[in-house]
Amino acid sequence: MQLLKLTSSASKLLTGATTGRALIARTLASNPAPMERLLQVGQQRINIVEAGTGDRGVLLMPGALGSAWTDFKPQIEQLPALLPNHRIVAWDPPGYGKSRPPNKTFGLDFYEKDAEAAAQLMEAIGLKRFS
Hints:
GO terms for molecular function: serine hydrolase activity. This is Valacyclovir hydrolase. Keywords: Hydrolase. 45% of the residues lie in helices and 21% in strands. It is of the alpha+beta class. The protein folds into two domains: 1-30; 33-124, Rossmann fold, CATH 3.40.50. The longest helix has 29 residues, at 2-30. The model has no long low-confidence stretch (mean pLDDT 82).
């Protein structure tokens, strides 16, 4: 009797794992490949990489010397399967990566300017709410 319970539990576990793998495979198959493009946002050309098709936005912001691909390649490739209702957007802020010229100037307000550019970008691609 005890052996039967273990077998039943093992069967449920295996069935759940198989179902989970099938769901991930289906999600991966339904998400188009990441797309990189340059957008004109205000006076600046901004490079972005988009993945996923959801109506919720996730903005990936690179660090000091990084770019969309160098800082976020694993996230761009894997997050759409984990967050099927989200569109993943990695960007090169103005003055970084492929969003040049202009070259970046680091005044006291450069974080504020990057935040404003990010909000304008997300609005331009139709994502009014994002994290």
